[in-house]
Every structure is written in C-alpha cells, then in structure tokens.
C-alpha cells in the first residue's frame, strides 16, 4: 500500500477539502467504524457463524477498511495512501523502539490486568466465551489466529486510529490528534477491566506516532505486543481462562526496560529523519 494512490483512475479527484479536522468529527468516524463492525458481527451471529477471533478479526478488517476508504475519499482526494496514512520513512531507531516497547510492555500490562481481574472477577459465562474466542484445535487454527491477531488486527487498527484519523487532526494539533485517537482506541474495547492497560499501550502508541511523524513505529509496537500474547498461548504459558503469571521482579525489570527504550525514543525523535517526517505529517 505504501506509495500507492487511491483507486478510481489513480485519484479520487478534486481539491483537498480542509474540513474533517475536528476531534469530535474524527470520533464520529471511529464510531462509524465500530458500529459497522458490530453490525457485521450481528449478521454473522444470525447466520450461525462461530465468533472466534479469526472471524471477528476478519469482520473488523472489513469494517475498518471501508470506513478508512470513505474517510480518505471525503477528505484526502488525490493524496497518495502512503502520505494520507502516515506510512512514511522515519528514524529507524524509532521503529526499533516500537518493537522493544511492544515486547517490554506486554508482561507488566498483563500483570496489571490480572490484578484488576482479581478485584473484579470474570464471570463463568465470560470465561466460556473467552475460551471459545481463543480456541485452537490444531496447527492451522494457530496459524490463522496468529495471522489475524499479529498482523491483520494491528494493521487495520493502526491504519484507522493512528493513520487516517490521526492524519486528519494532526494538521490542526498533534496533541489533540494523540489524545482523540488514543482515547477512541481504548473506548472501542468492550471490557472495562482492560482499559487501564489499554490506556498505557495507547499512550505509547500515540507518543511514537507524534515523535516519529510516521505510522511505522506504532505499527511495530502493536504487532510485537500482540505477537507476545500469541506466543504465550502457543507455548502454553497462558490460556484464555488462565492468565500469564508474572513474577514481580520480571515485571519490574520490564518496566525499567520500557523506560530506557522511551528515553532512547525521545533522543531519536531529534534526528533529522524524524523531524522531516513530522513536518510532512503536518503539512
């Protein structure tokens, strides 16, 4: 998709509209994407489809990509997708920082969610539903789950939140873009017990997006974070009904690692490549 232009003769035609930069309007676009996703899920349920993560991920991909296309059709006609979605080069160290943060934040945030669920336990019905979502009956199921969870879901979510949506608001304010897309990313996840961990992930994603001027570091973080969870499932270290138990010393070490990586990312954001990407982001 990088460097490509929107279809329909290569361009959607017309001059670039200057609207669509209101944070409230962007929230409405995100709401439309989530509403379309829920509609597709309802239709699949009526047809008797098993709503596992692969099915839900596929429905999410369709819904989010449709809304991304319509949003860009409305506000970014004729703009190459690479620019409209923030798929531009930046300092490679920031992409590496995304990978490092995705890996180092997984265990601490897993511990945070486990702590919250001890005080607000998951019901038996919710545990059964969660087990169905993550059900793996063989190697093919594991491969399908890995593709959807580690590639498809992070890609479409980043393209919507820190790609198309962020790209609209950042032209007016980088801080507003970070806040509105970060908040909406948390809100579309239904389980309130996961919101504190998601808020911290979202903050890291937004920081990398602002600092780098590119979607690539955020995408690297998101993919790595999700991949760490799938790896724990594949190795049997955790399951849908049995959370990953993390020793306190390991959690502390991972927090420290994440802080070191963040400090490096702050330094790397001063690199000319990152500065050029930010300038293009806001142009």
Could you explain the architecture of this structure?
This protein is mostly helical and 283 residues long. It has one domain. It is 72% helix and 0% strand. The two termini are 21 Å apart. The N terminus is likely disordered.
- From the N-terminal CA to the C-terminal CA, the straight-line distance is 21 Å
* Overall tally of domains: 1
The helix/strand order is: HHHHHHHHHHH
Q: What is the mean pLDDT?
A: 88
Shape: globular
Spell out the blueprint of helices and strands.
Elements: H1 23-46, H2 53-75, H3 81-84, H4 92-119, H5 124-133, H6 139-169, H7 174-187, H8 195-212, H9 216-235, H10 248-268, H11 272-282
Helix pairs in contact: 1-2, 1-6, 1-7, 2-6, 4-8, 4-9, 4-10, 6-7, 6-9, 7-8, 8-9
Gist?
This protein is mainly alpha-helical and 283 residues long.
Name its key features:
283 residues, mainly alpha, 11 helices, 0% strand, globular
